């Protein structure tokens, strides 16, 4: 699978989970790799958690992680995404409804 086909498959699965009111668990392995960064999604009540890290495990900046988020979710307004920064990974949280409304497949 290409990075883009993986991204689209992940977004389709997120839409299915939200429509079925299912929790997205880390064990669902809902993620992929994009331009040298790993990403994974999991659900937290009515929020979706997106984790971004470098594939090689090295540190990354908030700006680098935000670039990945913008490519993963191009229709999602940045103002609707909450950020919890780290050194080796950055974590983003967004409402299910906001995400579903912004997904473009």
Percentage of residues in strands: 25-35%
Major sheet summary line: 5 strands, antiparallel
Instruction: Quote the average pLDDT.
Output: 93
Cα-atom Rg, whole angstroms? 13 Å
For the largest sheet, list the strands in their spatial order: 1-2-3-5-4
Low-confidence runs: none
Helix count, DSSP H or I runs of 4 or more residues: 3
What's the β-strand tally? 5
What is the 3D shape?
globular
Give your account of this protein's structure.
This protein has 3 helices and 5 strands. With 105 residues, the protein is of the alpha+beta class. The protein has a 5-stranded antiparallel β-sheet with strand order 1-2-3-5-4. The longest helix is centred in the first third of the chain and has 17 residues. The relative contact order is 0.18. The model has no long low-confidence stretch (mean pLDDT 93).
Can you describe this structure in just a few lines?
With 105 residues, the chain is α+β, with helices and mostly antiparallel strands.
Key attributes of the depicted protein:
globular; 3 helices; 5 strands; 33% helix; five-stranded antiparallel sheet; alpha+beta; 105 residues
Topology:
Blueprint: H1 3-19, E1 30-34, E2 37-44, E3 47-54, H2 62-72, E4 82-84, E5 89-95, H3 96-102
Antiparallel strand pairs: 1-2, 2-3, 3-5, 4-5
